Amino acid sequence: MQPTDGTETVVIDCSMTMAWYFKDEATPYTNAVRASLATERAVVPALWPLEVANVLLMAERRKRSNHTRATKWLRYLSALPIAVDAETPFRAFDHILNLARPHKLTAYDAAYLELAVRRGVPLGTLDSDLKKAAKAVGVVLFMPPHGLTTP
After folding, report:
1. 11-54, pLDDT tens digit by residue?
2. Where are the domains of the chain?
3. What sections of 1-151 are H helices per DSSP?
C-alpha cells in the first residue's frame, strides 16, 4: 500500500479486491479492473486493509484459504498501486453516516462512496446496493480502459 498523492483515478472496494483472490468470484470485469492497475492508480478508505484482512481470516477458518496462500497474495496486493486514504476516519461521523442513511448502506460501504464523491473519481465495486447508491449521487462506475463490458 502506498501513501495517497492525489493522482488516484479509481476507488476500489473490498468486494472487488477479494474477487481477485477467490478465482470463483472473478469475472471479466474484475479481471479487467485488476489489469487496469498497470496504468491506473487506486485509492481505498482507511478501513479497506481491515476488511481485506478479515475476509482472509474468515476464509482460513472456513478452509477456503490458508495462511501461506494469503501471505503470498498480500505481498502481491501490497505491490499494487493502491493508496490508503487517511481522511476516512475523520469523515465517519458526518459525511459517511450522512451517505449511509438515505441509501441504506453500511458505514463501511458508505466510506467507499464518500471517498469516490470527495475525490471525484469512479468506483469499482461488485456490490449492487453500492452501485445503486453511486448512481443516485452521481458517482460513475469504473470502466477499465481495456474495453470491457459493464460492471
Report:
1. 999 999 999 999 999 999 999 999 999 989 999 999 999 999 99
2. 2-137
3. 14-21, 28-36, 48-61, 67-79, 88-91, 97-103, 107-119, 128-137
